[in-house]
Each structure stands twice: as structure tokens, then as C-alpha cells.
Amino acid sequence: MIDENSRPLVIENLSFRYNSRKEPAIQEINLSVNPGEVMLIAGSSGCGKTTLMRCVNGLIPNAYHGDLDGGIRLYGQSVLDMEMAEISQKVGTILQDPERQILGTYVLNDVAFGLESLGLPRDEILLRVDQALERMGILHLRDRETFGTSGGEKQKIALAGVLAMNPKILLLDEPLASLDPASAHEALQIFRQLADEGLSVVIVEHRVEDVFAIEPERVVYMDEGQITYQGGREGLMQVVDYTRIKLPAEVVFTRAKNDPPPEFEPAVVKTEDNSEELVKFDGVHFRYDEDLPFVLEDINFTIKKGDIIAILGHNGSGKTTMVKHALGLLKPTKGVVLLEGQETKTITIATAAKSVGYVFQSPSQMLFAPTVADELAFGPKNLGYSKDEVRDNVQWAIQTVNLSDEMESPPLALSFGQQKRISIAAILAMRSRLLMMDEPTAGQDYWNYRSFMDSILQMPGFEAIVFITHDLDLALTYANRIIILYDGQIVADDAPEEILLDEDQLIKYRILPTSLLRLNKLHLPETGSFFRAETLAHKIG
Amino acid sequence: MDRIDPRARWIFSFAFLLSATMFWNPAFLLLFFLLAVTWYLLGRTRWKETRRGWLLVGFMLFTMIVINTIITGGGAGGVVPPGGHVLWPAGFTIPLVNWQIYFGLTVERLWFAICQLMRLGGVSLIFVLIPYTMDPRAYGATFRGLAMPDSVAYTMELSFRFIPTLGRDLAVTLDAQKARGYELEKFKGGIFQKIARIAPLLVPVTMNAIIASEDVANAMDLRCFGQAKRTWIYPLRYHWWDHALIAFSALMLLGSVVAVHIFNAGGFWVPDWFMRLFV
Question: A299 and A236 in one domain?
């Protein structure tokens, strides 16, 4: 039995309401964390996870103000009686986007930041920085610039910066969000190792299945600001709505048998092999500068009417670079890209945009207009459509994404999910034949991204869809063709049922097999195709 | 240049700025300009790496010297006495629209433009060099070493951390808007229409920067920024040549004050040889 004063974290009847809101963000939270434990806090967007973290790390009430009730104790001491400096030496926090957490231009300076702020002697700082970098296995990055490091490296740098301050509790806010599967797996192993060394690790994440791989001792599920489940992993899998968070496929498969089958009919349908070619890559090589190595090498493939293509590959494999060529945003160094038979080098991007609609990762990278109506009219106007055509296209697009009521709303004031749909509508309004999406599910929780993908794939208007993703399950659920890129080369291009069978091959290309893939493979002789777990549950027995 | 302590470099740069801007006397300005050229050459930068900086400076110099001084004469106000030897009285006619442009350029104003070029050019040579030759890790420690508060000193360092991020965000937004048929080069209409045409780029980049700033502020709070007297790990140490440079900077500034305010040697004048070229 652990004495209350030696527990790293105890939260009792905690409630908080932001000054800017009427309703509390969290209510009546009770939990505690032991040394050496991994605690997973799961829940969909807006459930209060981030607010809870801010209460623990002291940002509430120091940076965010509102009504705070209840108690938070770190080793028996109330955080309300502690200075930020004191809290930060006990609680280390990794924010969702490590890019924004990295404050130094060089790795050494970033990792040293907290220790410099505490005013420690220079020699001690340098020693502790080296120790933290070594612990993360990135001592070789010590004198590198932070900007040029990969997503996985950035997260390790951010972790080293926090660990250098010797915290007892580590708070991780959606730490897997910007990582490819192999990097995410590696990061999770590090979290487990840190817990085994005695730290208390609290992971806020909706990719529950991934976190289960490191066997968290305790799982908390939050919904609408309250804890609705607290206990072991097995219990969570039985009580939580399986459409809200990503549970192992076998669990969904078993539970979904008792529910009605999901309805999903993609609007883009595969046609004959000799169907029309929309885009053709022929011997494409690309490099950003003649002094630099090629980032794409000998790329050959075609996008045809009816294709729903998922492009998989590790961070830095060249996925986005390749897709940008289809629209002419980048031109090949060698080889040609043909868009509806025309070489992209000979046409403007505006001309290409009439055929290819490209949706970037975050809607905030493109939304700017004062109203949704203006936002949707922007593309068609640029393409030179007549006033009547612009009006008709905008009406059709907004109805297609089911947001007609928001025509006069400012796009940036809408929810993230609505903004994503507006960004699709902006492409729809241009009447592009081919939709290309870069990481369409980034920044969305499981339920939201599933409903987003369902609605996009069932939407009329596009003749082919291409999406870049790290999520293998997304690819095998929605795509009828998968392209795998590895170090700038296409290493596989076929139907999901053909190329996802060889797990060793996938691991070689830094793609980790999932429980859904294994479940589908098990039943492939009966089904002949890949499905989501809920559909599979109704197709089998 | 690498061997000079960045604090001494900044002290010299500011002393140069303050000193050079006291003068319109072409003889002194020529001296300052030559000093700046020497300083710039010490930096051993390559044109390829500095050309973007010079493009920006070139645009600024063109606006101030060609447009504001030579064409409109606005920049010469208060320095060049009214009247003078008119060089181009008739101006010219814009073809097709037949607009008469009365140029009214005088020899004095033309010489003033040359003085301005020496003065602004000299200051630009000194300051353009800084981002290309100073270690970005040194900014915070340098400004703290120049007696600025930690918060101001770190702001300088942080801006260098986020310049590449901002540049990348701008490039992504430009690509996202190009994908919607936006063509930056097709700017038409008056100044307000042109500004409105930049909105698709500026609004997303600005909004993202504002949202990101919340995370950056949180990250700094969570790592105790401002909670104690900060240690700056970047090593800074004065050598004898740094002391010599600081002494030279102080003498330059003091000498300039004496020359301008006691001997009244800062005033503008036109050399005879230049006048004789035109009159």
C-alpha cells in the first residue's frame, strides 16, 4: 500500500471552468498515479483531456484562468501552493506538436532551455543535457539544428528537454499524432522504458490500440469532461463505445456482431483496366537542388478513373513531393508527368487545378475568407468560371458536404471537422475530377476522422481519389489500391489484398501490421477482400 | 569576423549607425562608407548566400534614394537648401497618355542622393552582415550581455528559431492557394485591390502563427522561463581585440559628436568638381 504522500499524483474532485466558457471543461475528476506506472487517458476531442493535463502541469491556473475546485497533489503537496518552476521540475510535459515545443535553434540549446531557466551552473547544464540526450539515444544530434530534424527526432529532442529537468511525472499529449507507425512504436517503447525506470507516465491518446502495445497499468476514459471508466485494459474494451476510440480489431469484431452493420458505399467505383488515365508519372526523378540528392527516383504509375489510392510510406519517403507533381506544384527534374495527356511542365498550376483538387493537411493552411461562401467561390473565380457557374458550383459543393447552414459563417470560426469539410467543398466547387488529400485524418480523433472519410468517399463529384496516410487501417478500409513509397521509390503498387499479405515486407518498409490487417488476412479466403472490423463481423458467420 | 565577440560586434554596429547618421558631409560619409566596406569584406560572405538580403536592401535603397530623393525630392527636405541648379527642368512626357512629369531635379539633389547612398549603403553593409556571420545560438547571450532583460534577449533568439518555420508555413500556404488557381503574379488594380489579393496568403499564415504562439508560450512556461535568473550556456569571452574594437567604437561615436556639435562639420555641401560636371 502506497502512502498518499509518496504518490506522485493524486487528483480529488477536480473541476475547472474556463473564464471564457459557461460550462465546466472537467468535472469531479478523481484519479491517482503510482511510480513506475503508465496511465492511458483516452477520449474523443473536447472530452477534457487537455484541460486535465493543464491542471496537473500548472498551466491552469498560471496561464489559463477560470474557476478551479478540488485538489491536485504532487507527492502530497498541493500544486496551488507551488511555483511553476517547482511544478515543472516534478511534472514534465510533451505537447502534441513537438515542432512548437522546440525553442532552441540547435538541439543542445533546446534541451538546455529549462535548466538555463532554472539558473543552474553551466557545467551542470551541459552534463545533464548530455545525459538526457544519451538516455534518448540521440547524443549524435547534440550539435544539429533543430529545424532540419525529422518528426521522430523532434519528439525525442522535446523529451530530452523535459527529462533533463529530472521530472517524476511525464505528461504526454497525443504523442503519436505526428509520427509514422514505426516512429510511434519506437516512441511507445521509450515511454514504457521510462516508466520501468520509475517515472509515472500519463499518455493522453485516442489511438488506444497502439498504446495497449506497451500494456498501460491503468486506463481512464473521459467523456464530456468526466471520467466514465477507470480500471484495466480489458474492462475498457468491454464498456467503451467502439466507434469513439480505436480498439483492437478483434474486440470490435466481436462486439459489432450484435449491432446493425455499417452502411458504406463509395461513390468512386473501379472500372475496367483500360479506363481513362487522369495522371501518368513516367520515369520521374526529382531533387530540390542540383547539389542535393534525389528525393524521388524513377517513379512510374498512373491514376485512372475509379482509383481510390492510399499512398503509404515513412516520414520523408517522398509522398507529398510525389503528389505535388500531379498538380504541377513541383516539376520533375527528369521524366514527365502527364495530366489528362498534357505535360505538367507546359501548363500552369491554375490550369492543372481544373483537373486536380489538392487538399492540404491542415485546413488552417488555406482558409482565409470572411465567409464560407467567399471561401468556396475563391477557387472557381480564380479558374475563370462565369458568375452563374461560380454560384451553382458553390451551392452544390456546400450541399454535398452538408454545411448549407454555415454559408455566411467565417470558416475559421468553425470546428476543426467542419473546417476540413469546407476545405473539401472548396475543391469540389472547382469541379476537379481528381481529389488528392495529404494526411486527411491528421488532427482529428478516431470518430471524427472515420465519419469524415466515410462522407468524403461517399460524396459524388470525383472520378478518382488519392490520399496520403500513415494509418494502415485507413488504407485497407477505404482504398482499392495502395502505393508504398520507400526512400523516394515506389516499392509496391497493387490492390490492398495483394500487397499487404507479406508482413516482413511491410516491416521492412517501416509499415507496422495492425490487428485489423491480421483479422482481415485470417478471413480473406472467405471474404476475398479487406473490410473494416464492423463489416467483417457481419460478413463472417 | 568569427573571432570577434558578438557583443563587441553589436557595439561597433550601433556606434557606426549613430555616428554615420549624424553626418551629411560627403567627406565623412565617404570615410564611413569605406570603413563599412572593409568591415563587410572581413565577413567573407559569398554573394550566393547574401543575395536575398541584398535584394531586400536594394528595394529599400531604391525606394528611398531613387523614388523619394531623385524623383519626388521628399528625402532631401531640410538638408538640401531650396532652389539650386536645376538639372532637368522640363521633365518628360509619358507616351500614349501624354502626361507631363515636371522633374525639377537639381545638381544639389543629385549629390544628396549620392550622399544618401553612401550613408544608407554603409549602414546596410554593417547590418546585412550580421545574420550571415553570427551564430544564431549567440543572440540571447549577446543581448543579455549588452544589459537587456532575459525576456528581450530571448525574444531575439526565438525569432531566429521560428523564421524558417514561418518561411515553410508561407510556402505551404502559397502551394495550397496555388492549388486553388491563385496566381501571385496576376496582381491587377489599385493598391487596395493588391492588398486584398495578398489576403489568401497572409490570413492563414498569420492565424497559424497566432495559434502556434500559444503553444510556444506554454512550452516556455513549462520549462520555467522567467522563474529565476537565467544562465546562458553560449560561451562569450572578450579578447584584447574586442576591447580594442569597443574602444574604437566609443572614439568614433565621441569623435562624431564633437565633429558635428562642436566643429559643425556634419553639414551637407556639394563639391565643386561635381557642380562643374553639370553647370
Answer: no
Residue A504 CA from chain centroid, whole number? 25
Average pLDDT by stretches of 10, chain A with 541 residues: 80 94 94 94 87 94 93 93 90 88 93 95 96 92 90 88 94 86 88 94 90 94 94 90 90 91 81 78 94 93 94 91 94 95 92 91 90 95 92 91 89 85 90 90 82 86 92 93 96 94 92 94 92 90 63
- Decide if A264 is inside a domain: no
Q: What is the ipTM, given to two decimal places?
A: 0.84
Residue-range definition of the domain harbouring residue A79: 4-247
Are residue A41 and residue A129 in the same domain, yes or no? yes
pLDDT value of residue B191: 65
Is the same domain home to B161 and B129? Answer: no
Q: Which three cell numbers stand for residue A253?
A: 469484431
B166 and B258 in one domain? no
In-domain check, residue A270: no
User: Within a domain: residue A260?
Assistant: no
> A425 and A303 share a domain?
yes
Predicted pLDDT of residue A2: 66
User: Which residues of chain B lie closer than 8 angstroms to A162, CB-CB?
Assistant: 223
CATH number for A490: 3.40.50.300
Segment 198-217 of chain A within 8 Å of chain B by CB: none
3-state SS assignment for residue A154: helix
- Is there a domain that residue B220 lies in? yes
Full residue range of the structural domain in which residue B220 is found? 148-233
CA–CA dist A240, A446 (Å, integer):
13
Could you tell me if residue A258 is inside a domain? no
Buried-state track B32-57, b at ≥16 Cβ within 10 A, e below 16: bbebbeebbeebebeeeebeebeeeb
Residues B6 and B120 in one domain: yes
Same domain, A180 and A313: no
Cross-chain CB nearest to A120 (options B217, B218, B231): B231
Chain A positions touching B231 (Cβ under 8 A) are: 115-116, 118-122, 125
Angle made by CA atoms A320, A325, A329, in degrees to the nearest 5: 90
Q: Are A306 and A272 in contact (CB under 8 A)?
A: no
- Angle formed at CA A333 by CA A328 and CA A334, multiple of 5 degrees: 105
Indicate whether B173 belongs to any domain: yes
User: Is the same domain home to B12 and B123?
Assistant: yes
Task: Note whether A365 contacts B164, CB cutoff 8 Å.
Answer: no
CA–CA separation, A428 and A451 (whole Å): 18
Clarify whether residues A407 and A451 are in a common domain: yes
Give the residue among A309, A273, A302, A335 at the shortest CA–CA distance from A457.
Answer: A309
Is residue A116 less than 8 Å (CB to CB) from chain B? yes
**Of the candidates A181, A162, A182, A164, the residue with the CA atom closest to the CA atom of residue A173:** A162
B262 shares contact with chain A (CB less than 8 Å): no
What residues 104-143 of chain B have any CB closer than 8 A to a CB of chain A?
Answer: 136-137
Cα separation, A78 vs A70, in Å, equals: 10
Interface of A with B in 386-415 (CB under 8 A): 412
Measured at the CA of A464, the angle between CA A461 and CA A465, to 5 degrees, comes to 100
Angle at A185 between CA A535 and CA A10, to 5 degrees: 95
- How far apart are the C-alpha atoms of A16 and A64, rounded to whole Å? 10
β-partners of residue A222 are: A227
A9-18 and A66-74 strand pairing: antiparallel
How many domains, in total, are found in chain B? 2
Q: What is the DSSP string of B161-173?
A: HHHHHHHHHHHHH
**Same domain for B210 and B266:** no
